[in-house]
Design goal:
The protein is mainly beta. It has 1 helix and 20 strands. Strands 2, 3, 4, 5, 9 and 10 form a 6-stranded mixed beta sheet that branches. Strands 13, 16, 17, 18 and 20 form a 5-stranded antiparallel beta sheet that branches. The longest helix is centred in the last third of the chain and has 10 residues. The radius of gyration is 18 Å and the shape is globular.
Length: about 230
Amino acid sequence: MKKRFFAILLAVMLVLGMSLTASADEYNWEIGICTKITINSTDTPTVYIAGSFVNNDSVALSPSTGTAKLYDASDNLLYEGSVYCIPSVVQPGERAYFSIDVRTSNFTNPDAKVDDYTFDFEPYKTSYISYERVNASVEIGTELDSIYGYPVTLSVTNNTGAPMEDFNLASVFIDNSDGEPIFVSDTDYIYNRIPVGSTILFNTYIPEAVLNLINEQIPNHSVEALVYVSK
């Protein structure tokens, strides 16, 4: 899946914003890439790309580990790295999210600008692994961590009647105008056990500059807690 776009990339924090659809040969899914936030700056540039896909197949799919590639205007490869989805097993009709953040200092040419990118996944059909989304609330903290940014706290209460453990979680910032992701926090696998009736808090983070840009440039947005527990 390859999409040409024009964007200013030397940015403090850059979240890319276009859309595309693609279908793997033997799977029925749609992929969208969102690039919505830009800033004209040359300070410590970092590329943020958030995307999502919908499983339109009739069975659960596991996207496994994907590969992200960034190119300059001459199709020179600037960066290649892994990308992960949440949830790791996507039920029929369910939407999954993914993102990468890459400092331009990691490019093969740190002074180059990204002009093209690809995300490639090789999903396989699965019937022996299952994650179920559970209700969770989310709150953005006001105390800034100088390294990670602002904490985004996910709160989960176990009302299932049985202990819960093995969590797959992240937070996602959504543009309410089209439902597409603006930013997805790092996906975590956590093995905490929540007894029946208990509540546990998980922290993810959003960089300060990214949150500032979202607040400035995407007035109608929301943040969702993505919390999945193994069944």
